[in-house]
What does this fold into?
Amino acid sequence: MPTFQEKLNEQIAYEFAASQQYIAIAVHYDSETLPQLAAHFYRQSLEERNHAMMMVQYLLDSGDEVLVPAVAAPQTSFADDVAPVALALDQEKRVTAQISQLAVTAREAGDLVAEQFMHWFLQEQREEVSSMSALLQVVERLKDNVMLVEDYLARESGGSNPLEAGAPPAAGGAL
It folds into this structure.
C-alpha cells in the first residue's frame, strides 16, 4: 500500500496538471476575447500551482523526497464556451476525491500531522466545487449570450478567499 508521502507526490502531479488545464481553458477564453473568463481561469491556474507548491513544502519540511513530475498535455480545444467550465468542474470533483483519499491514507497510517495538513485542502475543495458548479450553471444559462457571463464574473470576482488566510506555506514563498 502506498505511503502518504508517495500519494502526496502523486497529488503534486495532479495539481500541476490541473494548473496546466486551467491555463489551456484561460487561453481558449482569451482567444475568444472573453477577458473575465480568461482571467478567472488564469487565477485558477495559479491557485492550483500554489497547491502543488504547498505540498512540496510539506514534504520538504517533513524531510521526505519530493518528486517533480511530468504532466500530460491538457485538453486545448472545446466544442463551445460551456465545455471548458464543465471540464473544470469534473476536474475539481476528481481532485476532491483524490484529496479525500489522501486524508484517509494519513488517518489510516495514524499520521495526525499529515491528516491535519489535508484538512485545509478538503475545505478548499468544497469551495472550489461549489464555485465551479455555480459558474457552470451561469454559463449554461447564458450560453447564447456569453457576454452576460463576462458581466457576472466582473461583478462576482475580486474578493479574497477567506481560506487563503489559513493556507499552508508554499515552497518558494509568495511568488
Notes: The radius of gyration is 17 Å. The chain has one domain: 4-68+76-158. The helical segments are 4-31, 35-62, 83-108, 112-141, 147-156. Residues 4-68+76-158 form a domain with the Ferritin fold (CATH 1.20.1260.10).
